[in-house]
Amino acid sequence: MKTVAIIKMDDPVYHEIGNACRDRCEKAGMKVVFEDVLPMNTTDLSSTVLKMKGKQIDMVINTGWDKILASFVNEAIKYKLKIKVLDGGHATITPFLKESLGKKLKNIFGVTFWLPEAKTKPLHFKDSIEFGKKFHARFGYEPAYHVALATQLMELYETVLKGSNPKDPFNTDAIRKALLGVDRDMMYGRVRFNAKGRIYSDMLVIQWQGDPPKPVIVAPAKNATGKMIYPSDPLGT
């Protein structure tokens, strides 16, 4: 895999993400041969796909949200764009994308902070798989990382408020000091803090595999539930 195209939105956050992607690609010996910056209200990616036609592009990286990715996939299939890898970024696990693309999600890559299959260790469950099953049984849908993050906030409150001064339990200095002493497994994985905030470990890299496509964790190795398919022909063209 040698050549890369990057799609990003005209917003400081997405410029930052896109620029980081370019730097990482170049450090890995891959050449960025195409970049497209799209207005924030863009919903039609046909012009982007047409500008890619005729270029030798091995990998496309989407830094935008789910509607951008859905439009890109549909237009790329329509115009028979040939690539080896499609990185959908953080957007691939949204319910909208699953409903709008269905089988077209097959072999697309993405990243996420958390999935039940990562087998993290929440405080009050055997593991995140047990949590995911009980959550689905209670609410009728699969928990995404937003659910895990909300749950971990409660785990952090429970952890740092134990032994706090009952006369002033929410003292910010005391809470900050307690957070700096946290180093344990929780819903989101290993939780540690420094003076700047949470110390994050690697995000999960997923690839939608199977029929119907489901997210399979392919990296990091300690969390992997399957192997990467490459070249993946993500657009089925």
**What would the average pLDDT be, to the nearest integer?**
92
Q: How is the biggest beta sheet arranged?
A: 4 strands, parallel
* Helicity range: 25-40%
Number of strands: 10
Question: What fraction of residues sit in β-strands?
Answer: 15-25%
| SSE pattern | EHEHEHEHEHHHEEEEE
| Contiguous runs where pLDDT drops below 50 for at least 5 residues | none
- If helices are DSSP runs of H or I spanning 4 or more residues, what is the number of helices? 7
What is the CA-atom radius of gyration, in angstroms? 20 Å
Distance between the terminal alpha carbons, to the nearest Å? 18 Å
Global morphology: elongated
**Strand order within the widest beta sheet:** 2-1-3-4
Query: How does the helix and strand content classify structurally?
Result: alpha/beta
What does this structure look like?
It contains seven helices and ten strands. The chain has helices at 12-27, 46-52, 66-78, 95-101, 128-139, 145-161, 172-180, and strands at 3-9, 31-38, 59-62, 85-87, 109-112, 183-186, 189-194, 197-198, 204-209, 214-219. The strands form three sheets. It has a four-stranded parallel β-sheet, with helices on one face. It has a three-stranded antiparallel β-sheet with strand order 5-9-10, with no helix packed on it. A three-stranded antiparallel β-sheet has the order 6-7-8, with no helix packed on it. Helix 3 (66-78) runs parallel beside helix 4. 32% of the residues are buried. The mean pLDDT is 92.
